[in-house]
Design a protein that fits this description.
With 77 residues, the chain is α+β, with helices and mostly antiparallel strands. It contains 4 helices and 2 strands; from the N terminus they run αββααα.
Length: 77
Amino acid sequence: MESVARDLGFEYCAYGIQMPIPISRPTTAMFNNYPDKWQRRYDECKYVEIDPTVQHALHSDKPLLWTDDVFMPTPGF
């Protein structure tokens, strides 16, 4: 995944998948190459709950073009 992202001109990439089992508490697996410091902050601040890219992925299988407008609803993020 990282080499494909690099070939496309991106420094970082992430992939997440939400597994529906167990139904009462689905689990999420995240894979990325972001710096450790950012990953810790993301987890500590629970950004996954407000990250517009995550929200998009939960409701669409289409790619998301990152623009400033995408992040306007979450200025704290």
